């Protein structure tokens, strides 16, 4: 009997991190805490940027968009994992798995493209400060975000639609805490060469191209900073980029590593661990990285909380 979409698979099993029952409360508490911190922290960033007119600049416009995407990114995977732990079930429906995979691809690509837009913003601010307000106009900022959404939606639709015709006739166990495209393709018993080709091509093109743009921007930024005579000026210029560079390094390196390493190995443990870094840890750290040393954000947050700004 041929099993495919004609006989319609009803569910997959998400194996998660551990089969040990005694570890489940610890995993639940840890991820629930990280999820709440992520949502609350990024919502504060969005609220601060939207409520303070001093933060209505390109840099904070991109930061607010990044915070929104980070909330969606984490909400795509973590709540379902928490629900499965709480109900002691590993089941995710076929439709739920496809939907989760689609939104995951969308948010991951959006994160990457918005980070590259933020790098371009810092490049213009430091290398062309006199023309900054002209180049980084509200129209260009809006266009960059819109193009990021269009590219991400098209990429997500393409890769998701290519999964739908596949037949699944092996064990339905996914050794991950969410439906990752690469893990789902491994369960297919029909030919996935085209899917694999498109997946890796998209990873290299849509993941690598923004990374190259970011590296180019920072090479120019470093050259400009080296040309600044005063130490205070160098520190001020570098401090505006340090937060962004930290997030880029964490997100892009782990994200690309997950997919490119799967070419050489079938081990899922390292992939799962790296996925936690860029799907949960990075979105949680973003509000702290961007706000702890940012006086403008801290001033806006104090105003929201009713604390007099010093």
Automatic annotation (TrEMBL):
Ordered alphabetically, the record's keywords are: G-protein coupled receptor, Membrane, Olfaction, Receptor, Sensory transduction, Transducer, Transmembrane, Transmembrane helix
Q: Which InterPro entries match?
A: GPCR_Rhodpsn (IPR000276), GPCR_Rhodpsn_7TM (IPR017452), Olfact_rcpt (IPR000725)
Pfam families to which the protein is assigned, alphabetical: 7tm_4 (PF13853)
> Can you name a GO cellular component term?
membrane
Topology in the lipid bilayer is annotated as:
Multi-pass membrane protein
Extract the GO molecular function terms from the UniProt entry. Answer: G protein-coupled receptor activity; olfactory receptor activity
Q: Which domain of life is it from?
A: Eukaryota
Q: Which locations, inside or outside the cell, does it occupy?
A: Membrane
Annotated transmembrane regions: 26-48, 60-79, 91-110, 130-151, 198-216, 237-260, 272-292
User: What Gene3D superfamilies does the record point to?
Assistant: Rhodopsin 7-helix transmembrane proteins
**Domain annotation G-protein coupled receptors family 1 profile: ranges:** 41-290
As for what it does, the entry says: Putative odorant or sperm cell receptor.
Per its record, how is this protein called by name? Olfactory receptor 7A17-like
Organism source for this protein? Answer: Panthera pardus (Leopard)
């Amino acid at each position: 009997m041929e099993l495919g979409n004609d006989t319609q698979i009803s569910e997959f099993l998400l194996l998660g991190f551990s089969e040990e029952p005694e570890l489940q409360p610890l995993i639940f508490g840890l991820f629930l805490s990280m999820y709440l911190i992520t949502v609350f922290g990024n919502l504060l960033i969005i609220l601060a940027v939207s409520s303070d007119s001093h933060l209505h600049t390109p840099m904070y416009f991109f930061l607010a968009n990044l915070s929104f995407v980070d909330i969606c990114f984490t909400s795509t995977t973590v709540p379902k994992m928490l629900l499965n732990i709480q109900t002691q079930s590993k089941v995710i429906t076929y439709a739920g798995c496809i939907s989760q995979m689609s939104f995951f691809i969308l948010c991951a690509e959006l994160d990457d493209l918005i980070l590259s837009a933020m790098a371009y913003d810092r490049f213009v601010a430091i290398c062309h400060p006199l023309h900054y307000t002209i180049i980084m106009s509200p129209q260009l900022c809006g266009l960059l975000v819109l193009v990021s959404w269009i590219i991400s939606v098209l990429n997500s639709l393409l890769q998701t639609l290519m999964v739908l015709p596949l037949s699944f006739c092996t064990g339905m166990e996914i050794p991950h805490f969410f439906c990752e495209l690469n893990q789902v393709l491994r369960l297919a018993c029909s030919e996935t060469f085209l899917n694999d080709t498109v997946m890796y091509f998209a990873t290299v093109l849509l993941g690598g191209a923004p990374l190259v743009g970011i590296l180019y921007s920072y090479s120019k930024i470093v050259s400009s900073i080296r040309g600044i005579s005063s130490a205070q000026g160098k520190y001020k210029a570098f401090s505006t980029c340090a937060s962004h560079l930290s997030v880029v390094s964490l997100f892009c390196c782990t994200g690309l590593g997950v997919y490119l390493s799967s070419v050489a190995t079938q081990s899922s443990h390292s992939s799962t661990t790296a996925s936690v870094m860029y799907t949960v840890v990075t979105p949680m750290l973003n509000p702290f990285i961007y706000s702890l040393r940012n006086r403008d954000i801290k001033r806006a947050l104090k105003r929201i909380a009713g604390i007099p700004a010093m």
